[in-house]
């Protein structure tokens, strides 16, 4: 009992400290993994449920600890005690009834509260105008498809702000191309698994614009920890502009024609797609608008020329165990290919 009480005390202290630090900190990308600042209806429902659970378990801890402290003080050994065991009382219908009924009631309350939150999240109706996204988990990156908008991108999900007066939620269909993954953006929604041969769903309705970080929350292989994702919540106007830009094919640049030829004559075309070219691979991310993204390798590195070259030559240097092969190009071809990729905006 003492060990259990101490564990709860530690959890309470950690929870309160984390909540204090989270509320005191300014919102920024580096703090977007906090569960203490929900910015979407599903995340807010989960957060409120966690507060209820914390309140109930905290009360249990206080009652048990108080009774334990009272017993230790009241019945401590005193000077002159003869050491004999006090009279024992066997059986108490009132006590046995209490420690049976009270835990049952507590479990029932927690069960009903949890069931209500699960139902409100999972059975939420899809209003007209909702954004539909298909998220596909790969080892070790994310593919995002907007079937109604004709847009395909990777690792960075763009969604519009959901105004409470005109809700525009984003409903996400979750699929896996290989093994188990888990879609988790703490400030927007709870964890939902992506399981091969099974279709799962989640949804978000962000209330504030900005960047929200998430990641795979289910161990899926050697680079599970670097299977990151970014959710950009844009104003409706900015989101529409992003969609229009993403619909455009890759623009040709005569200065990068040599790099394009290198791309189309190497193994790159077997895995990647670039609209307007012969590249039509499905195994790797769509690169049509590669340079519109802030990161590469599913958030493992910034999207710069230097990191692009390192990623092409030796992906294991950035993400050990990833499934992209090392191209090992000579310096001239590597420079030309990188120059071409930098034009994909």
Notes on the protein architecture:
The protein has three domains: 2-71 and 93-122; 131-247, Cupredoxins -  blue copper proteins (Immunoglobulin-like), CATH 2.60.40.420; 254-341, Cupredoxins -  blue copper proteins (Immunoglobulin-like), CATH 2.60.40.420. A five-stranded mixed β-sheet has the order 3-2-1-5-8. Strands 4-10-9-6-7 form a five-stranded mixed β-sheet. Strands 11-12 form a two-stranded antiparallel sheet. With 345 residues, the chain is of the alpha+beta class. The relative contact order is 0.10. α1 crosses α2 (41-74) and α5 crosses α8. β11 (295-296) and β12 form a beta hairpin. It contains eight helices and twelve strands. The protein has helices at residues 2-24, 41-74, 93-122, 236-247, 257-264, 268-271, 305-313, 331-341, and strands spanning 131-138, 141-146, 151-154, 156-160, 170-176, 181-184, 192-194, 200-204, 210-216, 228-234, 295-296, 301-302. It starts with a helix and ends with a helix.
Brief write-up:
This protein is α+β, with helices and mostly antiparallel strands and 345 residues long. It has helices at 2-24, 41-74, 93-122, 236-247, 257-264, 268-271, 305-313, 331-341, and strands spanning 131-138, 141-146, 151-154, 156-160, 170-176, 181-184, 192-194, 200-204, 210-216, 228-234, 295-296, 301-302.
């Amino acid at each position: 009992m003492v060990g259990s009480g101490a564990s709860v005390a530690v959890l309470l202290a950690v929870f309160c400290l984390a909540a204090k630090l989270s509320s005191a900190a300014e919102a920024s990308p580096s703090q977007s993994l906090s569960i203490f600042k929900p910015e979407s209806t599903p995340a807010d429902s989960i957060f409120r449920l966690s507060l209820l659970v914390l309140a109930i378990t905290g009360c249990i801890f206080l009652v048990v600890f108080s009774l334990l402290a009272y017993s230790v003080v009241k019945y401590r050994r005193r000077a002159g005690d003869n050491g004999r065991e006090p009279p024992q009382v066997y059986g108490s219908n009132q006590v046995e009834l209490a420690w049976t009924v009270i835990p049952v009631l507590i479990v029932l309350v927690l069960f009903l509260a949890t069931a209500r939150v699960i139902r409100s999240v999972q059975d939420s109706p899809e209003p007209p105008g909702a954004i539909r996204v298909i998220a596909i988990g790969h080892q070790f990156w994310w593919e995002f498809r907007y079937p109604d908008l004709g847009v395909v991108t990777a690792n960075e999900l763009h969604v519009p702000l959901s105004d409470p007066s005109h809700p525009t939620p984003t409903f996400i269909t979750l699929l896996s191309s290989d093994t188990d993954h888990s879609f988790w953006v703490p400030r927007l929604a709870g964890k939902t698994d992506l399981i091969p041969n099974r279709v799962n769903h989640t949804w978000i309705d962000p209330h504030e614009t900005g960047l929200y970080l998430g990641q795979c929350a289910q161990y899926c292989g050697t680079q599970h920890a670097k299977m990151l994702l970014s959710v950009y919540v844009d104003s409706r106007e900015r989101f529409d502009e992003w969609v229009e830009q993403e619909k455009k094919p890759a623009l040709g640049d005569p200065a990068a024609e040599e790099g394009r030829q290198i791309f189309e004559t190497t193994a790159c075309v077997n895995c990647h797609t670039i609209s307007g070219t012969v590249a039509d691979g499905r195994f790797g991310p769509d690169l049509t608008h590669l340079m519109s993204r802030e990161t590469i390798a599913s958030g493992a590195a910034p999207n710069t020329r230097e990191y692009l070259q390192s990623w092409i030559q030796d992906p294991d240097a950035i993400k050990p165990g990833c499934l992209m092969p090392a191209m090992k190009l000579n310096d001239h071809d590597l420079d030309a290919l990188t120059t071409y990729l930098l034009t994909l905006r």
